[in-house]
Amino acid sequence: MFLVTGATGSLGRRVVHLLREREESVRAFVRLNARYGDLADRGADIFVGDLENERDIARSLRGIRYVISTHGAGRDATALMYRANIELIEQSKAQDVEHFTFVSVLGADRGYEDAPTFKAKRVVESYLQGSGVNYTILRPSGFANNLLPLAERFRDTGFYLLIGDPENRSSIISTDDLARITADSARNEAARQQVLAVGGPEIIQRGDIPKIFSRIYQREPFVVNIPLPLFDGARGLLGAFNPDAERDLGTLRTLLANEFFCTSEQVAQVEAIYGLKLESLEQFLRRYSG
Ligand SMILES: NC(=O)c1ccc[n+]([C@@H]2O[C@H](COP(=O)([O-])OP(=O)(O)OC[C@H]3O[C@@H](n4cnc5c(N)ncnc54)[C@H](OP(=O)(O)O)[C@@H]3O)[C@@H](O)[C@H]2O)c1
């Protein structure tokens, strides 16, 4: 049986759906207040718990062969990204789990000091690598589904808010392709003990996104570009009243200020290991735009 954490998240939900389509047995780790009816309807074993609770983690792992960690950090990277994953790895080892797939992030190894999620991901990666548990570490770039609400707003208004340098490059990954890669890692020998950068097949500049929307919805874009120093100023001002909120924005600041893309060699490596052709951002958005 698979255990999927973050099963109600944008990636985890897709992973559970995919595994159930293949009639795999799956336990979905969910919180009580989350929306998980679709997972239950598809035959997933629903485990209600909290990843901040070690006993819940231990209980969720009973009888599990493969672990897939896709949960997010929320506002507490230390508790959720760091401690919960370390506990999942420890318990996986104690319970002889065969394989652990950890969804990290592209750039986890770059030492961004201002980004607690990135720092926690890197520590967890190292811990998993030294744990003796079989693993696959996936380092995805930004997910394409993040853009769906922005695309809908663009469709209705033509408006696009661009924060930071429009020439910054990224290779946004189709969340559906990533779900397939995540679901396939446990049984893919070529993915064993690998750390893989996972991005879409093309490198785009941030300023290309409203152009893609414009092609899909056939309307002129109205782009408002907020330069990074303005964002920093607002963040600093917020910090004067609420230092926690300022710190929480560190990961977003890191995402806005840096480039996250994969080389063509990295794309080819992932396509070869998983036997798929990665879709572009435009293909993903067109599928969802109906
Ligand atoms: N989104 C991106 O662009 C991106 C890029 C690179 C890497 N990643 C990584 O990829 C993974 C998946 O991202 P995502 O965007 O799919 O995440 P997401 O949509 O934000 O989902 C987060 C999931 O974690 C669950 N969760 C949060 N706190 C929990 C707790 N205390 N106990 C149990 N479950 C808890 C949430 O449950 P609720 O539904 O109850 O809130 C939800 O299912 C994450 O590890 C993320 O860091 C994301």
Run of helices and strands: EHEHEHEHEHEHEEHEEHEHHHH
- Structural class by secondary-structure content: alpha/beta
**Major beta sheet, strand line-up:** 3-2-1-4-5-6-9
Give the C-alpha Rg.
19 Å
Proportion of residues in β-strands: 15-25%
Strand runs, count: 11
What's the CATH topology name of the domain at 2-141 and 174-198 and 263-276?
Rossmann fold
CATH H level, superfamily name of the domain at 2-141 and 174-198 and 263-276: NAD(P)-binding Rossmann-like Domain
Percent of residues in helical segments? 40-55%
Mean pLDDT: 95
- Termini Cα gap: 34 Å
The kinds of small molecule bound in this structure are: NADP nicotinamide-adenine-dinucleotide phosphate
Biggest beta sheet summary: 7 strands, parallel
3D shape:
globular
- Low-confidence residue ranges: none
How many helices? The count is 12
CATH class of the domain at 2-141 and 174-198 and 263-276: Alpha Beta
The second-level CATH architecture of the domain at 2-141 and 174-198 and 263-276 is: 3-Layer(aba) Sandwich
Describe the structure.
This protein is α/β, with parallel strands linked by helices and 290 residues long. It is built from 12 helices and 11 strands. Helix 1 (10-21) packs across helix 7 (175-184). The longest helix has 18 residues, at 77-94. The model has no long low-confidence stretch (mean pLDDT 95). NADP nicotinamide-adenine-dinucleotide phosphate binds at residues 6-12, 31, 34, 50-52, 70-72, 74, 80, 103, 105, 117, 140, 142-143, 146.
